[in-house]
């Protein structure tokens, strides 16, 4: 079973991942990934589901495949489109690296990809463009 120190270490090593759905939810609530990092760094475990956590952490070495958070199917390396609806601008980021579940289609981002998406979207917040279509690889550092 993981303790909070294990979780903090995984967070510091960027070994955390988010579903695309989660990214959409935090975007609409104005939460950013650094808030989540801060919560983990200063947090404590208030409830734990050991069987679920064990299954979700079956990320195979090498990062080619991952176990889906929802259906426990295999999520393989892939790309997807990410949408962000800002007040003034709709952003479409194409060819975003992800893991995609071969069983249910769930999309999972590595934390570094999630943070890059936030950065891209943030840079367009004051844009005068109504629709921005961006190729992830052209803007990724
Ligand atoms: Zn799945």
Protein architecture, described:
Helices cover 38% and strands 28% of the residues. A hairpin with a 4-residue loop joins strand 3 and strand 4. It contains 6 helices and 6 strands. The chain starts with a helix and ends with a helix. Strands 1, 2, 3, 4, 5 and 6 form a 6-stranded mixed sheet that branches. It has one domain. Bound molecules: zinc ion (ZN). Zinc ion binds at residues 68, 70-71, 73, 101, 103-104, 106.
Mean pLDDT: 87
- Overall tally of structural domains: 1
What small molecules accompany the polymer chains? zinc ion
Number of extended strands = 6
Number of helices: 6
Provide a short characterization of the protein structure.
The protein is α+β, with helices and mostly antiparallel strands and 141 residues long. It is built from 6 helices and 6 strands. The chain has one domain.
Give me the secondary-structure topology.
Blueprint: H1 4-12, E1 17-19, H2 20-29, H3 33-42, H4 50-56, E2 65-67, E3 74-85, E4 90-101, E5 107-110, H5 111-123, E6 131-135, H6 136-139
Parallel strand pairs: 4-6
Antiparallel strand pairs: 1-5, 2-3, 3-4, 4-5
Zinc ion (ZN) is lined by residues 68, 70-71, 73, 101, 103-104, 106.
């Amino acid at each position: 079973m993981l303790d909070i120190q294990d979780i903090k270490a995984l967070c510091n090593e960027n070994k955390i991942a988010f579903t695309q759905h989660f990214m959409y939810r935090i975007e609409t609530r104005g939460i950013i990934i650094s808030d989540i990092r801060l919560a983990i760094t200063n947090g404590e475990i208030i409830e734990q589901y050991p069987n679920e956590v064990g299954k979700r952490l079956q990320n195979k070495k090498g990062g080619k495949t991952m176990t889906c958070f929802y259906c426990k199917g295999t999520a393989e390396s892939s790309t997807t489109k990410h949408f962000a609806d800002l007040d003034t601008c709709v952003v479409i980021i194409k060819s975003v690296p992800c893991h995609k579940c071969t069983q249910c289609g769930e999309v999972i981002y590595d934390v570094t990809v999630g943070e890059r998406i936030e950065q891209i979207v943030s840079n367009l917040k004051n844009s005068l463009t109504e629709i921005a279509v961006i190729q992830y690889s052209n803007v990724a550092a």
